[in-house]
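Input sequence (280 aa), recorded before submission:
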Amino acid sequence: MPGADKKFRLRIHPLFLAAGLVSAFTGDLLLFLAAALAAAEHECAHAFVARRYGFALDKLVLMPYGAVLSGDIAGIGKKQELAVLVAGPLANAVTALAFVALWWLFPETYPYTEAAASVSFSLFLVNLLPAYPLDGGRILHLLLSPLGERRANVVCRAVTLLTALGVLAYFIWTCFFDAAWTALVFSVLLAAGAFGGGRYARMTFSREKSFARGLEERRVVIAAERTVQDAFRHLREEKYLVLVLFSGGEFLGELSEEEYLDAVRAGRWSAQLSELLPAL
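Predicted structure, token format:
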């Protein structure tokens, strides 16, 4: 039964700890921590918006090159997915602007916050690149979806590989001055991301324990023309959902949680709620 009881899980990859130790010895620990916090903020913004639409991106893994978020967005609508994708870069942009405002009000804080602001702004820009596994690549795939899944994948992979080659060319150019090794690593990650995939699993929770201890009813008045996807955000583990349907100011009927979830299990995301009412 879909719901939202999965707790947010945080895992730290051993290589992340190793990278942290190296940065401590090289004097870059503060920059490393700033980058880790900015990456975590980025992914948590994705998770927050996904939760608002009733989906769970609930596993965050801190990696030496950033953070990886996984979970459930299977069946999400295009507009909702776009909002989830944009949330990460937008959070970094807002953070960077907040630091700029801080400098305006308190100039003496600049030396202590400049690195964090730079990292946040860099994440904002980098994630707009139209390449996998970055948000920009996923947004490009979303925009190309009218071409069909296969063609969209081919175009996105080609653009990702071209972007990786561009970053690699930049690395080669820097070798004549001061080699930018991070660019080399980034180009390899982009090339690998061109052939990456996703894993999605519908979030679940059990009603048996809830019914045993008693459950408060949550009644939501909603337009009958809204879709099953639109109403998904109203589900709460701690409350039993009843949808009260109105159309044109007239009461049409009520949907119990079981009736609504039958449509969810059947994957009828685009069906109007009025279609779920029992035939008279």
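Checked by second reader. The first helix runs from residue 14 to 26.
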